[in-house]
Amino acid sequence: MAKKKKTSKASTGETSESASAAMSAASLKELYEGQSLKPSDDDELPLPPSMAAGSSSQTATTTTTADAIPELPKKKKKKKKPPKPSCCGDEDSDSDVPESQKRRATGGDSGGIKTAPLVLLVLLTGTAVLPALLWFGDYLGAAMSKNHIMGNIGFRLGLGPTPKKRVLSFYEKHDPDKFDDVPQILAKYYGSYPQLIKKLERKYQDYGYFIGWEADEAPSVLVKEGMTQVFKKVNKQWNLHAPQVLKTAARNMYYNFSALSRKGKKLWKKTIWPVLEPFFGVPEGSAAQKRKDARGAKKKKKRPNDFRDEDEF
Questions:
Q1: Basic residues composition bias: which ranges (predicted)?
Q2: Does the residue 153 lie in any domain?
Q3: What range does the domain containing 200 cover?
Q4: How many CB atoms lie within 10 A of CB 298?
């Protein structure tokens, strides 16, 4: 009987201990949930073996779930730049200054240049600099006109017609020593070539030599001269390298086509145009102009028995 009493007492003691431990754990859990506090290592209480096994299994499951969830990349925090020290070393003095005064001192929120002080600065300095700029402009213009800088540029670039051919032939006739100075002379009188022509005619007493010099630089004349130069070069290479059979054939073709062109012009003028003239008509005064041109052509023709000045010398 005594043994049974002891075993019953022991079992009742164990059950009372387990009940008290469960009540303490439940009270701690309610306390944590109500105050939203996390348990620390100091708050943990020893649990009985049965509850300790259950808590260990729960912790194992939580650790496995925590390991299964991937960790998100952490954002790097920007390092704050330390404030620049002031010139006088009074860092606390800037903190006391209000933001409005700081903005006024730095020129506003944008930090741009204010226009009103800039305009005043330009007005103050412009009145002092303007006379110097005017003097420099006059000096530069006089130097450029004296050294014929603009004339040299225009002549070198070939802007506008120039009487270069007439001047070269004129100096070749009257003063060959100045033949090499023709580019400098033309650059000096660039834009005022009539003045140069008058001086040359008065100096050498040779009038009428430069009449119609503008036609020398006409586009049609320049194109014709370029074509003749190209034809001469091609003809020279043809005569050097082409076989004799081809040369003879080309010469015969040239003569035949030239003869046909002459006959065609004569046929048009003598036979075809007189028939078409009544239908198309001619401008008024054309007959008088034709007679005038014919008289002028007769006067220009020189006859062998005409008197010439060269016969006297």
A1: 74-83
A2: yes
A3: 148-213
A4: 8
Alpha carbon distance 207, 174 (integer Å): 13
- Structure tokens given for 306: 């005409």
The whole-angstrom distance between residue 13's C-alpha and the CA centroid of its chain comes to 101
Whether residue 106 is contained in a domain is answered as no
Pull the structure tokens for residue 162: 């120039």
206 within some domain: yes
Residue partners of 209: CB distance under 8 A and separation at least 6: 166, 170, 201
Closest alpha carbon to 193 in 164, 221, 169? 164
Q: For residue 190, give the amino acid letter.
A: Y
The candidate with the shortest Cα–Cα distance to 173, out of 192, 193, 154, 201, is: 201
**Is 68 part of any domain?**
no
Q: H or E element: which one contains 9?
A: helix 2-35
Please, what's the b/e burial string for 245-269 (b: 16 or more CB within 10 A of its CB; e: otherwise)?
Answer: eeeeeeeeeeeeeeeeeeeeeeeee
Q: How many domains does the chain have?
A: 1
Identity (one letter) of the amino acid at 269? K
Please give the model's pTM, rounded to 2 decimal places.
0.37
pLDDT per position as a tens digit, 155-205 = 777 777 788 888 988 998 888 888 888 888 888 888 788 889 999 999 988
